[in-house]
Amino acid sequence: AAEPEAAAVAQPEAAPVPEPVAAADPVPAPEPEPAPVTAQEAAPLPEADAQDVAPLPAPEQSIQPEASAPEPESGPEVIETPDLSDEAEPVQPETSDEVPTAPTAPPAPGYDDAEREAVLRVMRERRDIRNGFRSDPIPHEVLLRVLEAAHTAPSVGHSQPWDFVVIRSAETRRSMHELAQQQREAYAKSLPKARAKQFKELKIEAILDTPVNIVVTADPTRGGRHTLGRHTQPQMAPYSSALAVENLWLAARAEGLGVGWVSFFDEREMVRALGLPEHLEIVAYLCVGYVDEFPEDPELMQAGWSKRRPLSWVVHEETYGRRALPGEAPHDLLQETISNIRPLDAKALGEAWERQKRMTKPAGALGMLEIISAQLSGLSRMCPPPIPEPAAVAVFAGDHGVHAQGVTAWPQEVTGQMIANMLGGGAVCNAFASQVGAEVCVVDVGAVAELPPMPGLLPRKVRAGTADFTTGPALTREEVHAAIEVGIETARDLVAAGNKGLLTGEMGIANTTASAALICVYTGMDPAEVTGRGTGINDEMHARKIDVVRRALELHQPDPADPIGVLAAVGGLEHAAMAGFLLGGASLRTPVILDGVSAGAAALVARAIAPEALAACIAGHRSAEPGHVAALNKLGLRPLVDLDLRLGEGTGALLALPIVQSAARAMHEVATFDSAGVTEK
Ligand SMILES: Cc1cc2nc3c(=O)[nH]c(=O)nc-3n(C[C@H](O)[C@H](O)[C@H](O)COP(=O)(O)O)c2cc1C
Fold first, then answer.
1. Whether the predicted interface score ipTM is above 0.90
2. 389-394+410-426+439-643 has which fold?
3. Which residue has the higher pLDDT, 433 or 86?
4. 115-303 fold
5. 261 CB near ligand 1 (under 6 Å)
C-alpha cells in the first residue's frame, strides 16, 4: 500500500523550536534532607528538654496589652522637589497621587539574599506527600517547632481560631482511614471512566503510614460576637486556620518532615468519630512523618493528573483580564494565545512516518489513522504522541436574536432547559461521554436563561443571547473578544486539569442559522447551498432561514479578513467561544476534535485568526448539515465518522474520540518488525 499523504495541516516547520506547554519556573534540584538516620536519633526527647529547646511564652505574657506606640510628631518627611533646569527631563513619579511620596528614612530592611532564598526555597520545595513515609518517630521539640510556626499564622481579628489535635493512636488512625476509604470510593464512582482509571493508581492519603496525624480545626465562635473582620465574611475563621496549616506545612518541610493533607472526609462524621466539640469546623487532616524523599513536582503532576499553571495566566494589572507580570506591559489574551501557536513539528512528524513504516502491518494499512497519529506527533512534538486521554467535551451554550425571525421550530427556552439536562446527565452527549469515558462541561457563554449554579456548569455569560443580525450586528467587537477569551480560558482550564484531548460541543437554539452565515462568509457559497434544516424544519421555514442568512450578509457585507468583525456581524457567542477554544487548544499543543456544523464554522473563523491553529484540529464527524461539508472542504479536514448525525452537543466528536485515541495508542503498543522478529515484505 502507498504511504499515506500528509494531512493538509501537516506543514513541516523549517526550524522547530521546542517549547514547554505550561512552563513552570525551573526548580533547583532539592538537596538531600537530613532525615534521621536511626530511630534513636529521631527518638522523642523527654518533656523538659523539649521545653528547654523552645520555650513558649507564658499565657499571661501573650495576652498582656502592649504599650501603645508613641504618636509620630509630624507626618513623614518628604523629598523636596528638585530644582529642574530647563533642559532636564522631568522626573517621572513612580507612585500615583494618592500614595504619599517616599520618606527620607530607608524602609525597614528585608532579609539578606541567603535568608530570602531559604524562605523561597522552602515554599518551592514544600510538597504534599502520600508516598514514601517512614515510621521514624518525630521528636517532641521538632513537632513543637512546627506547631509554633502554625500558631504564628495571621488570623481574622487576631481571633486565632485554630486548635491542633495531635493523633498518634493506631486505633484512631484506623477508624479515620476507614472513613477516608469510603469517601474515596464515592469519589471514584463519580468520575468519568478515563479519570477513574487514572485515579485508581493514585494514593490520596497516608493515614496509616505516618506516626502523627494532626487535625486542624476552626472555631467560628472564638473571639466572641464582634470579631474584627469576621462580621461580613464568616468564612474568614476557617481561612485563618488554613493559613496556620500552610505555616505548619512549610515549617515541617524545613525540618525534613513530609505532610499530606487528606480531604476525603465527611466533616460532621469526622467530628463525631474524633469526639470533637460539635461547634468546631474541621479545616484539615494532616499526615505527618519523615520521608524517603521530597519529589520535585507535585505527585498529581507526576501522575499526569494535572499541570502547573504559569504565573502569567493569573496576574492581572488594575482590572481583571489585563494580564501582566510586574514590569511588563499588559498583554491581550488572544494575542498571547496566537503567538504560542506553532505549525506541526517537522522532526516529530518525520519520526511518526518512520515508525508507521516499521510497525507490524503493511505500510499505510491504518489509512487515515496514520495521518492522525502523525498529526498528534507533530502537534505534541513527541513520537509516539501522548494518548488523548482523559478528554473533555466543552459544550458552549448561547442564544440567538435571529430566533425571532422564525428560523427554527424550537422555542428559545430550550437552550437553558437542555443545559440543565446535560448537567443532570440526561442528554445524548452524556450517554456518549459516559461510553467513551470523557468529561462533559457546559459553558454558559450566552444563554438567555438565568442558570442557577450547578456542578459542571461554567457560568461565563458574556451577554444573554445575541441581537437579531437581520436588523443590526449580532454582537459588539468587545463582546466577541470576551467570548473568544472564554473559549481560550476554558481550554487552559481543561488542559491544566490534566485533559490531553479537547472536544467541541455547543448548544444554542437557532445556531445553525448563524453557522450558515459564517460558512457563507468563509466559503463564498450561496446561502441556499449551505443553509440546512437544523433540527428538522419544514420547507417554508427552510426558505425563510435561507432568506434570513442572505439578508444578513447583504446588510453587513462581512469582510472575511476581519474575523472579529465577521463574528460581531453574524456570529454567535458559542461560535466565538469555540474559536477561542480551538486557538487555546492549539497554543497548548493539545488536539481538538471538532463536532458538527457550528464547530466547522468556528474553525473557519479560528483559521482566519491564526491559520496554524488547524494543526490541532481533527474533524470528528460529518453532520447532515450541508454547510458542514462546505466548511470541512474549505478547511481541508476529513471527517472520521459519517453517520448522518445532526444533533450538536459534541456528540459527533465524542464518537470520534476512541478513533483518535486508537491512532495514538497504536503508536505506543504495536511492535515493530525488528522488535517482533517479523519478516518484512
Ligand atoms: C485544601 C487541600 C486539600 C487537599 N486534599 C488532599 C487529599 O485529600 N488527598 C491528597 O492526596 N492530597 C490532597 N491535597 C494535596 C494537593 O493534591 C497538593 O497540594 C497539590 O497536588 C499540589 O502539590 P504540592 O502540594 O506537592 O505542591 C490537598 C491540598 C489542599 C491545599
1. yes
2. Rossmann fold (3.40.50)
3. 433
4. NADH Oxidase (3.40.109)
5. yes
